[in-house]
């Protein structure tokens, strides 16, 4: 920290002048050694055994020496003693002596000399007053000016404001010492004999040391209490991971800004931010890496947003930004802030030396347009944020009343979903897969459906994400697997030809360490040979730790089932995991199949994927086949199997067995 500036330089110049006066005093020799030596001894003694208060202040032990000199021998004598005092301090604090920082020495000497001038002036002004009054006024002048000068030095170096409360606290901490020292000095100056003067001098040293001891303990205890209060306040109002204001402080500030906006007829904007796919980071890299990412996100939010705005972390991966003092014509401030955040978070993050990318979904609400209190404003911003997630994330959405209807519908879905399994509301439909070489059905995919008394038929795209978010998918997924395996075994026992049954695995199921054991238990309970079961996983599951993913896939393979990668091409496609992971089958996503006749690029992709999969000894199933042209092209490219409405829509097990094996109407359709 640089301590040279105009203020401290002026003090250093004054310090040089004080040294000159001290030299003049010694050169003239106009002093009484009987007074000079004891006072010099007292000054040095206090500096050799200093007691520094936690506040940084010293009581008036040394100051007594200065004021004795002022009363007995004048200003030049006082200059000598403050020079002696300052020199003693710097010699004791610096090892070796030659490393003394002389600029600081003269700055400190200048500070003391100006304080001494103030005390000397007060002596002159109060010379006709009672001696005790003059002494007290002198002490107050010296210590008061000294406190102001020290505060000025700190302010000029750090450029930080000094709280008024701190100055008052330090000033009060000097009062006891000033009063005691004033009484002691008063008695000393009244002594008529040298012996009594020495006695009073010794008494003064002992008395001030005792005062130092008790006051130091008191002040230290006060500081400990204050430090504890600050620590508890920090814990109560600030997030321990990011250092941002937490939910409690956020609520207080938002309420305050709303009250101010009501008085000023202005607006308050609220941005609710949630990180997309943050759970994947926690699951794959660990919670410690997740905390590091949260800290980096918090730092970027602080730097890219106006410092007047409050950035808070509510918990998890949820952040808020309060934008206050918005005029009627400045409502776009919130949108501008959201765009700035999106741009800032678009840049890469580094976690454990690896590049990571994280995008946010941002919801925006505005007071008083979207709520008149903090709770309503937060709720609506949260609702808008979830709407942004529905759009795919990495965007922002401003709240509109329609969003609330969507949230209420979601709450109804969640409420009914929790009891759907108990009320036996789920059922499974089956969609056949046609083998293009034999022209027969060799596989069937099991697809869950939900029919609720209140809601009617609910699409899987609506309830599956909710089930995954609440982890209900663990019990639901287990039920689907058991139902599909039991049905396949029932068909075999009825004498129908054995076929492969495919069941989708959720990412939540795949993360469960109990999955292999669960599969083995279901196979054992249903007595189904595992070679007739295929588990389908999506590409997003492969973003987890490669070692863990490989271990889990190998454990699943050890149960005897086959593994297929579903919806290939729409996620985080990578040729490396096709080569490294033990897949048996690859399913091409229907989005490529549906546009094959319209875009040559899709045909090229389909042809390339089929060739690649065959080269890696995987079978290929094309999803979403709806017309003969698509079927013909896939047959030309040696695709193994197809699935789609051209063959059959998902149907009940009774319909499937009837159409496929009983009356063979499905078989005639395929031919």
UniProtKB/TrEMBL annotation:
Residue ranges annotated for the EAL domain, each copy included: 410-664
UniProt keyword annotations, A-Z: Membrane, Transmembrane, Transmembrane helix
InterPro entries in UniProt: Biofilm_reg_signaling, EAL_dom, EAL_sf, GGDEF_dom, Nucleotide_cyclase, Rev_trsase/Diguanyl_cyclase
Gene3D superfamilies (alphabetical): 3.30.70.270, EAL domain
Residues annotated as domain GGDEF: 266-401
Keyword Signal attributed: no
Matching PANTHER family: BIOFILM ARCHITECTURE MAINTENANCE PROTEIN MBAA, DIGUANYLATE CYCLASE DGCP
Protein name in the entry: EAL domain-containing protein
């Amino acid at each position: 920290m640089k301590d040279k500036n105009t203020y401290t330089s002026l003090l250093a110049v004054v310090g040089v002048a004080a040294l000159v006066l001290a030299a003049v005093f010694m050169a003239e020799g106009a002093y009484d050694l009987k007074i000079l030596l004891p006072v010099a001894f007292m000054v040095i003694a206090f500096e050799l055994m200093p007691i520094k208060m936690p506040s940084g202040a010293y009581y008036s032990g040394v100051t007594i020496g200065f004021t004795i000199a002022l009363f007995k021998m004048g200003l030049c004598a006082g200059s000598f003693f403050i020079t002696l005092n300052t020199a003693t301090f710097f010699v004791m604090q610096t090892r070796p002596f030659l490393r003394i920082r002389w600029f600081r020495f003269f700055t400190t000497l200048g500070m003391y000399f100006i304080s001494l001038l103030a005390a000397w002036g007060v002596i002159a002004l109060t010379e006709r007053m009672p001696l005790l009054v003059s002494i007290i006024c002198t002490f107050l002048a010296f210590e008061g000016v000294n406190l102001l000068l020290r505060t000025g030095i700190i302010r000029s170096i750090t450029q930080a404001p000094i709280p008024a409360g701190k100055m008052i606290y330090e000033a009060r901490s000097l009062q006891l010492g000033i009063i005691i020292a004033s009484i002691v000095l008063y008695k000393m100056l009244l002594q008529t004999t040298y012996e009594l003067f020495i006695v009073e001098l010794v008494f003064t040293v002992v008395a001030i040391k005792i005062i130092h001891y008790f006051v130091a303990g008191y002040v230290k205890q006060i500081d400990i209490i204050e430090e504890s209060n600050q620590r508890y306040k920090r814990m109560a109002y600030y997030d321990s991971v990011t250092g941002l204001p937490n939910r409690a402080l956020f609520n207080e500030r938002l309420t305050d800004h709303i009250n101010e906006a009501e008085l000023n007829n202005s607006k308050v904007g609220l941005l609710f931010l949630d990180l997309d796919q943050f759970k994947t980071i926690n699951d794959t890299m660990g919670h410690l890496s997740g905390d590091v990412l949260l800290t980096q996100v918090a730092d970027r939010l602080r730097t890219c947003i106006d410092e007047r705005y409050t950035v808070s972390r509510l918990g998890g991966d949820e952040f808020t930004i309060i934008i206050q003092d918005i005029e009627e014509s400045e409502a776009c401030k919130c949108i501008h802030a959201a765009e700035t955040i999106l741009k800032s978070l678009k840049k890469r993050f580094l976690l454990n030396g690896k590049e990571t990318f994280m995008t946010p979904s941002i919801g925006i609400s505005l007071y008083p347009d979207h709520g008149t209190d903090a709770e309503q404003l937060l709720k609506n911003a949260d609702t808008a944020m979830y709407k942004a997630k529905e759009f795919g994330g990495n965007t922002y959405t401003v709240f509109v009343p329609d969003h609330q209807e969507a949230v209420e519908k979601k709450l109804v879905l969640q409420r009914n979903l929790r009891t759907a399994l108990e009320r036996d509301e789920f059922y499974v439909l089956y969609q056949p897969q046609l083998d293009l070489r034999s022209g027969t059905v060799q596989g069937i995919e099991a697809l869950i459906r939900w029919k609720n008394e209140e809601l009617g038929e609910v699409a899987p795209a609506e309830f599956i994400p909710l089930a995954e978010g609440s982890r209900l998918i663990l019990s639901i997924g287990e039920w689907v697997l058991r139902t599909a395996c039991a049905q396949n075994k029932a068909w075999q026992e009825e004498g129908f030809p054995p076929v492969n049954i495919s069941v989708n695995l959720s990412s939540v199921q795949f993360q469960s360490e109990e999955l292999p054991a669960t599969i083995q238990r279901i196979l054992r309970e249903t007595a189904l040979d595992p070679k007739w079961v295929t588990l389908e996983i999506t590409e997003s599951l492969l973003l987890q730790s490669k070692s863990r993913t490989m271990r889990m896939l190998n454990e699943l393979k050890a149960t005897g089932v086959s593994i297929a990668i579903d919806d290939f091409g729409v996620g985080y496609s990578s040729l490396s995991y096709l080569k490294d992971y033990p897949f048996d089958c690859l399913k091409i996503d229907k989005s490529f199949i549906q546009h094959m006749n319209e875009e040559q690029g899709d045909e090229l992709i389909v042809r390339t994927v089929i060739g690649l999969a065959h080269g890696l000894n995987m079978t290929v199933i094309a999803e979403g086949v709806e017309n003969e042209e698509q079927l013909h092209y896939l047959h030309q490219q040696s695709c193994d199997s197809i699935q789609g409405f051209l063959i059959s829509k998902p149907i009940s097990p009774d319909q499937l067995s009837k159409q496929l094996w009983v009356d063979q109407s499905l078989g005639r359709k395929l031919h």
